[in-house]
Amino acid sequence: MTQPLNPPPVKVSAVVGLLVFVEITSGLIQGMMLPITPAIGKAYGVSNAALHWVSVVQLLSAAICVPIFARLGDMYGHRKLLRISLLFLLAGSALVAWAPSFELLLAGRALMGPMSALLPLEFGIVRSRLEPGRARSAIGMLVGSLTLGTSLGLIVGGVVHAVLKDVHHTLTVPVVMTALCVVVVAFWVPESVERAVASIDWAGAAALSLGLVTLLLGVSGGPVALLGAAAALLALWVRIELRAEHPLVDVRNLVRPRLVGLYAASFMLGFSMFGAQTASATFMASVPEKVGYGFGFDALPLALMMIPSGLFAMAGASAMAGIGTRVGHDATLLLGLGLTAAGYLLVTVLHAHPAQFLAATAFISLGTGVALASIPALIAERAPITDIAISTGMYNTFKTLGGSVSGAVFAGVLSTMVIGGTASPTEGGYVTVWLICAAASVLAVLFLLAVARRASAAGPAAGSVPAFASAPGKES
């Protein structure tokens, strides 16, 4: 059921341009943390092992916040929850910047969990307020802006800290940027139109949150027993959702042909994208005189190498809607995944020189950008209009899970394939990582095609839109 609203018409620029600023800020905050994390360790006197929790705490908080904030946005208004998310982000950023202890800094990172819900909530606004063609373009711009902001954050974090030489002052930048976003969203971003008429499924939310947190801890190096506990909690969540009158997530919708392939592709995309980022960074930082490969880059050259990747990813995401109009939006997703696989295969042989590495990773970034924008755009069109935020929020969850799994897998690969007598990975270890990433992208393509073939054989169900049924220039 929906509760229709009749707000006045708004300009496209009011919906898109201002939200682009929010996503650039979100990416900037995420990107800044990487180059200054060592400085955080020195400022608080904590070990490198303890610094691992700076990212883990925010990731775990996001696993809890995204489904809940997204569903509340579908029920009470996406702009309203966007405002609340930004207030959490502002409070968390301020605590991180000025925390007197490392424990309070981690508490601030936990408060920043709703940052991961910003994108699904923005998808709900643009899908509600714009016609499908423009909504598709807007989603591409938002995804591209997040990617670009992350790349810029790497530079901003390194440069600002080099100038200010104080981690607390450096971390004040996200506080100022977030405060500007709060003002922008409070006064100029329009509210979405449709509402889901339901009550929040707190039992389902609790089971899903506990299941995701346990799973993420398990794949991040925790005891193996955590994986069994996660499976049990997620099975309980499925049972709760199937019995709930108004489930947090309609699990039946997750496995329907029009969406199941997209969620599987989300997992595979996160697997290859997040897992390879750390591996590629450590490869470029390796000193060739010591291990026979790498470029010996420190933080600033590494950040500069990542800027072109961000630009290519943004270009791919921004071009997604135009490509889809010409070749079909489902074919565009396959194209993005294909380019990603080709890029990973290229980098297995072209990594002896920085220019070669940049050329090969350009294909990865371009393809990843296209796929990152295509998947949520297709989900937003195929999901019920009152479930946009929660449906695209689950895309983010599957992508994050994929990255968590690949982080554990690739850590195992690089710790096993080492140069004799050292702890340094062999060049073959990195090649193996890139080959696995290429295989993940190919598997995503094959799964999407298999789902499409099965849906075509079964025939479209009444009132449904089969996966991969759109023609060039037509709505999915």
UniProtKB/TrEMBL annotation:
Primary residence: membrane
* GO MF entries: transmembrane transporter activity
Concerning Pfam families, the annotation shows: MFS_1
Question: How is the protein disposed in the membrane?
Answer: Multi-pass membrane protein
Please give the PROSITE patterns that the UniProt record associates with this protein: MFS
* Parts of the chain that traverse the membrane: 12-30, 50-69, 81-100, 138-164, 170-189, 196-217, 260-279, 299-321, 333-351, 357-379, 400-419, 431-452
Which keywords does this Swiss-Prot/TrEMBL entry list?
A: Membrane, Transmembrane, Transmembrane helix, Transport
The segment(s) forming the Major facilitator superfamily (MFS) profile domain are 15-456
Q: Does the keyword Transmembrane helix apply?
A: yes
Location of this chain's protein in the cell: Cell membrane
GO CC: one term? Answer: plasma membrane
Q: What protein does this entry describe?
A: MFS transporter
